[in-house]
Amino acid sequence: MLRKKQHEKLLLLKEVIKSNVLTTDLAKHLNLSTRVIKSNIQEINEEILSNFERHSFIVMDTNGLATLNTNYQKDGLVLLNKLKSLYLEASNEFKIITTVFSNPNISLNHLSNSLFISPSYIRRIIKKLNTHLNEFEFGLIEEKAHLNFQGNELAIRLFLYVVLFDSYQTSDYHFSIIDFDTSSKSNTEQSSVCPLFEILSKRKDSSSNLPIPSTQALSVLKLIQRNADVIPALSNYEQFDTDILKNPQEALYINFFIHIFSAHLIPENTKIKLGEIFMKDENKNEITKFSLELTKYIWSNFSLDYNKKQQTLVVFYFTLLNTYYDLLDESYPINVTSIFYQSKVKAVTKNNRRNQIERSFEKFIAERKKNHLPKKFSANESLKKHYCDLIYTITEFEFSTKINIHIRISKDFSAHAFIKNKLLKIYNSQTLVFTTDVSNCELIITDMLGTVNNHSQIFYFDKLQDKKQWSALLNTINTIVFSKLFNY
Q: Do the Cβ atoms of 234 and 240 come closer than 8 Å?
């Protein structure tokens, strides 16, 4: 729905907001010429000035270093989203989608009058839109001069959810953590209407068009509803049209998709409980069986030393992902960004861990093709990518970032305690371990020029109150932590 040029400018602005960057590096990353990059920066500045009254939002020096104006550092992400909203609100495609969503079965003439677009031009836009939407088994259909979304109802709702959530993410769409143990109202008195409920209320007349889940997926949906039912908690929100929650099939789907798209609302102990239930269910269901076997394989193959709680969480994640793909056509993505313009951003080279994960996953799939393999796995690159992404996260989220540090300061007898206590106010004792064994440390902090260790990094520190030396020390430690997190 965004034009190519608009998409390029948003990507550029996002990169500048993240960190200062050379225009030559931006050109390589976005696969554009430096001339186009500089032109886009000028256009962004003009648009932000005219719409939001911020002068020289992006500053560029003589070396081509693009930075965010120091006066607007706090405004970066807010203005990025406002600029995106500005682009979308000017898009006829976006206006048609949101207007038809807000007014199901709207007449073509009414839509034409609302948007000041001729009926013939609306039909041309819809024809173009449907070339993308039809890939997801639905479309924007005109019947008797009235318009509505028709097709796979589940795909329609997910598409609308992603469009609304992505477009209006600066709005207050949120709940507090859902409390499964009590039916009391949330402590958040002024919760905004969640896009999910807005979609449910607008699409409630299409409930009968929801696809019937497979036996395996239905089993998982029922396990979630029986053991982590969000409906009682959601029913307490008087600002929502909660009558739709009384529909049994709607309730099944709502429970499941809240666990995926609003995972932050689900307490961790609930996820662990569901993981334990999925593990016990593995003899009855190929989805949960596959999830448990993959978990065991990952544990063994990568020699993970995680506890039972972490294993059940992984079974929970794998089961949700596999059920998602069982419910939807195998080509349907987790998010539907493919309907928007796709930039030609050059891919980052995969690291060794990611390559190892892909090889291991392919081996796991190959070994199980003869036995039980969920039908959706056959030659499914999208599913393979999402599983490998999830496995990559799992193999990293508990990876040790422990740094052994040896302090050897000779000029100040209190320096050891001073440095140690200062650092422990910033890092916890699980990250920094102070050792007397100079042969078994990764960083030596010292004021002695003769300190040598072939395996350790040496940081020379001779002025305990020098802010520049402290800044350099923290940067050194952060660099080591970063390398442990991503380059081990």
A: yes
Q: 4-75 domain in CATH 1.10.150?
A: no
* Closest to 267 (Cα-Cα) out of 172, 180, 184: 180
Contact 4, 345 (CB under 8 A): no
Classify domain 92-151 at the CATH topology level: Arc Repressor Mutant, subunit A (1.10.10)
pLDDT per residue, tens digit, the chain (488 aa), is 788 999 999 999 999 988 889 999 999 999 999 999 999 999 999 999 999 999 999 999 999 999 999 888 888 888 888 898 899 888 999 999 999 998 999 999 999 999 999 999 999 999 999 998 887 789 999 999 999 999 888 889 888 887 877 776 544 443 444 454 444 434 333 333 467 777 888 888 888 788 888 888 999 999 999 998 888 877 766 656 677 778 888 889 988 988 887 777 788 889 999 999 998 876 678 888 888 888 888 888 777 666 777 788 888 988 998 888 888 755 455 443 333 333 333 433 445 677 888 888 888 887 776 555 555 555 566 667 777 878 877 776 555 678 899 888 877 677 888 889 899 988 888 789 998 888 888 888 888 766 555 577 888 887 888 888 899 899 999 888 887 776 54
Instruction: Look at residue 460 and give its three-state secondary structure.
Output: strand
Cα–Cα distance list, 200 to 105, 114, 217, 245 (Å): 16, 24, 21, 9
Phi and psi of 460, rounded to 5°?
-85, 125
Q: Can you give the residue ranges of every domain in the chain?
A: 4-75, 92-151, 211-343+351-394, 403-486
Fold topology of 403-486: Rossmann fold (3.40.50)
Residue 418 · residue 463 · CB < 8 Å: no
Q: What are phi and psi of 113, to 5 degrees?
A: -70, -35
Extended beta strands in 285-421, E state: 403-408
- Within this chain, domains 4-75 and 92-151 share the same CATH topology: yes
Provide the sign of the torsion angle of the four alpha carbons 63, 467, 417, 453, taken in this order.
positive
8 Å CB contact between 407 and 446: yes
Q: How far apart are CA 94 and CA 86, in angstroms?
A: 11
Nearest to 474 by CA among 412, 403, 388: 403
